[in-house]
Amino acid sequence: LDGKPIAEMKRYRDELADMRSNLSSFSFAMRNAKKKIDALKRAANVTKGDTKSVVKSIFEASQTLEELDLKINGDETAEDIGERTNPSFRSRFGFARGGARGSYGPTKMQKENFALAKKQLEQHSGEIKTLIEKTIPAIEAALIKLGAPYIEGQGIRG
Q1: pTM, whole model, 2 decimals?
Q2: What is the pLDDT of residues 74-109, one digit of tens each?
Q3: Which residues of 58-68 are buried (b: 16+ CB within 10 A; e: fewer)?
Q4: Contact status, residue 90 vs residue 74, Cβ threshold 8 Å
Q5: Taking burial as the number of CB atoms within 10 A of a residue's CB, which of 9, 28, 48, 89 is the most buried?
Q6: Which of 130, 154, 120, 139 is nearest to 64 (CA)?
Q7: Burial class (CB in 10 A: 0-12, 13-18, 19+), 36
Q8: Do 124 and 106 touch, CB atoms closer than 8 A?
Q9: Distances from the Cα of 93 to the Cαs of 3, 65, 69, 129, in angstroms?
Q10: Max Cα separation, the chain?
């Protein structure tokens, strides 16, 4: 089998590196969103007044975050027992990365998985961005309005 041209291999490896960088920032955003949601839960638990709707919003945000995690990382428990699951971003990306090894270059299937992984990450990046920039701040504002104590990561009140 003839290998791919060096320029094509370099371009593919560069695209993979960009994707890995985007995944790192996505993972960082997910961890921070989880921390913030946990802080909101703690604040809601000690806030006096009717927090029912805020607690519901926190639960929904937490569920959204868990669903995003499944879409990105897959269901490890199901995979461990051999249950078929939908391909996650990580499974597609991992398969696509195989095309950067060796001298043959990426196969058609590896390129297709890379394109699908890229599309998945772009879609999910929009979802996490909405959660971080709109949903979580709205919940925090509602808690503050109800007289919540200081919320971790809130900054200085004044």
Answers
A1: 0.81
A2: 777 666 666 777 778 888 998 888 887 777 778 889
A3: beebbebbeeb
A4: yes
A5: 89
A6: 130
A7: buried
A8: no
A9: 21, 20, 15, 21
A10: 71
